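Feature request, filed as a ticket because there's no other form

It would be nice if the structure record came with a short human-readable summary line next to the C-alpha cells. Right now we just get the raw output. Example of a typical job, pasted below so the devs can see what we mean:
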Amino acid sequence: MVALDAVVADFGGGVPVGSLGPVADSGDVRLAWVLADLMRFLLPGESRDHVQGVYEQLVDVRLDPFNPWVEATNILLRNDTPAPPGYVTWKSRVFTTIDSRWAPFFDDPESELDYRLVGWGGVLPDERPLGSVDLGCPGGCIPALDDPAMVPGADADWYPDDAIVFGIVIDEDARAYPKNIMEVHELVLDTVGGTRIGMPYCTLCGSAQAYDLDALPPEIATPVLRTSGLLVRSNKLMYDLITWSAFDMFTGRAVTGPLRAAGVELERVAVVTSTWGAWKEAHPRTKIVARDGGIGRAYAVDPLRGRDDFGPIFPVGAIDSRLPAQTLVLGVETPEGRVAAFPVDEATRVLSAGGSVELADIVVYPSAGGLQARLADGTDLATFEAFWFAWSQFHPATELWFDRP
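Raw output as currently delivered:
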C-alpha cells in the first residue's frame, strides 16, 4: 500500500496526521500489524494518536491510552491475525530506522522467525567484542559477561544463602551464577569443565538456559552470543556476533542468517535453579562469580525491584489457561521430542514429602536445592525453569504434570 510505503520510508520524521487515511479506508485488519509496530516507537502526541486512531478503526476496538502498543499487539496475537503481504519489508524499514544494525535479522528470505512476534525490548544490540570489560554500550544495551572471574564458594560470604543462583556442573566442575548478576547481564559466556558454554537469562520469562558451544561442526566458529535488543513474544532474541545469526533462546536453534542456513541447533546443558546455601552444601567445591564480576562493577541485590511481579510487561498474546502466567515450571524435552512441564512449587512439595514426581517415562528428582529430570532408565535430561506463559508458548503441545490423588 502506497500510504504505508510513504510513512515507513520517512518514519524518522514521525507520522503526519491524515497520512494513513487510505489505510483506514481499506478495512484490511492485517495492516494493523504495521500500525502496532509504529506505536511501539512513537512517543505520546499527535503522531501516535493518529496511528492509534487508525488502528482502532481497523480493528474496531478502543485501546488503553496508557500503553496502547502492548494492548494493540496482544489483540492481534490473541486473534492470530495474519500479516499483510509485504509486512517484513515494512517492519524492517521501521526497525532499521531506529537501529540499522538490526537489518541482518530481517534480510534472510528463509528466516524461521514469525515477524509478527518480533518486538523491541527497549535496548540496542550488544556488539562489544569478546572479552570486553566495558560496563555499557553507546545508546544502551544489555552487556554480556564474558569469562567472569570466579572465586571459591567458601570465600563468597557476601552472597546471601537464601538468594538464587543458577548452577551448572560439567565433569565435576560446579559453577554458580548469582541471579542478581544475571539480571544485569542476561548472558554469560564461560568455560565449565573444559566445555565452552553460553547461558542466556531471560528476565522477562524467568528462564536461565545453557548451551554447549563446542558441540558444533568444526567448520563453524564458536558462536559469540550477544543480546540483540529484540524480543520474540517477550523472550529475548540472542544472536551470534560473528555471523549476526539470530537464535531462538528456548530451543537453541538458529533462525536467521548463515547459521540458520547451516542448520545449527545448540545442544542444551542442564541448569539448576537453587539457593546459594543449598547449592554450596551440595557442591562444597563450587565456584561462584566474583562479587564484582571481575570487571569492577557493583551489583544491587535486587536490580529489577519486582518489575515482573504482576505479569508480562510485553505482548505475549493468548496464555495457556492450565496455569497462571507467572507460574514457574521445570521444562523437560526428551531425546525423542516429548515435551513436559512440572510446576516447581508443587513438584518440590511432593518430593519434600517423600512422594514421586513422574510423567510417563520422565522422573523429576531433587538436586542441590533445585530440580532436575531424567528418564526412567536413568538417562539425565537437560532441564531449566521458566514462567509458564513462556514455556507453553514455545512448546504449545507440552504435557503438564499435576499432583493428583
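Something like this underneath would help us a lot:
The mean pLDDT is 93.
DSSP finds twelve helices and 24 strands in the chain.
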